[in-house]
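Hey,

Quick one before I head out. I ran the complex with pyridoxal-5'-phosphate overnight. Inputs first:
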Amino acid sequence: MSKYPIYLDYNSTTPCDQQVVDAMVPYFSQHFGNASSKAHAHGWYAEDAVSQAREQVASLIGADAKEIIFTSGATESINLAIQGLAQKHASRGKHIITVATEHKAVLDVCAHLQEQGYDITYLPVDAMGMIALDQLEGSIRKDTVLIAAMYANNETGVIHPVAAIGRLAQKYAIPFFCDATQAVGKIPVDVDTDCIDMMAFSAHKMYGPKGAGALFIRKKNPLLEIPPLFYGGAHERKLRSGTLNVPGIVGMGKAAALCQAMMASDAKHLQELRDMFWKEIGAIEGVQWNGQQDHSLTHVANICFNMQGGDKLIKTISKHVSVSSGAACSSATVEPSHVLKAMGLSDTKAHSSIRFSFGRFTTLREITIAIEEIKKAVSRLS
Ligand SMILES: *Cc1c(COP(=O)(O)O)cnc(C)c1O
């Protein structure tokens, strides 16, 4: 066994692909120019690299390079989009529709807006983690200025009917923002077919570096002309001032290009691993799958072990396998996952649920060892 546990927590963050690291390295000391230095070759070189990355990122999601704003990550992109849209349309209305199972990055921004007088509708989900489209349509009001719904859930992998949500938003001329952090690079995401107006995603969830992300903003739509979060230099179409993180952006571009090239082979590999994992783990007595399995990311398995003292199970398994109990952001506290609670799981069930998420570098051997360790831990504790 290696020094470290087996990493089955790819939804928290992914390792950088070595090809991404290799692409980034020259931009630290060799091509270190500031991408906004217009007067010299150092600046041009950096600017060219950023342009190429912008093309690569845009291509992955079917967008135009002009529609990509580079940020520090999905959390920043989410704040920029939601706060920006809320502020822009405040005079028209203050009603926002989102979903109970969104990532904290979305829920916390909504809570912040609520304190400022906005009215937020949190759509419920069913036991499978799915929203009901008629319920979404029914909650649209005259003063609704934003629909914010994620593409795929980070805890369960459940994929939402994004295109249908987008068409509804279009029908009522309401901007549709999508947190696609878990979907981009893993499954085909196309901002046109999916009718998305704004979309946040992050490099470190798709084998790129931490600290780099993007916000897609559909062009030529006055409804989407939002104000920035901060000022100073007017970089990124005045929406995100500050010297560009050239190595990070180059890394995100390379990661996007790799994901595009490898999407089919990654997906096939991951489906095989998950099927094998579930065949064994699903056979353990009392075990249950959380979420709509046939409509989920193929690399995620959120599994309820249905036993008392779930924290003990996670502790025992964690010695050998890095996993997450619910979202990473809430794992510092003992709060049961808000996602599993929204799906109707009891506290006991939520506490004995574990999220396993696999990735490009997960091997069959690692899965075999993980299965053994899980079985051992379960039989010791039950
Ligand atoms: C990881 C994650 C985020 C936050 O992304 P950062 O780039 O780490 O800020 C937001 N939404 C979802 C669904 C995520 O999985």
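The two ends are 26 Å apart (CA to CA).

Talk tomorrow,
K.
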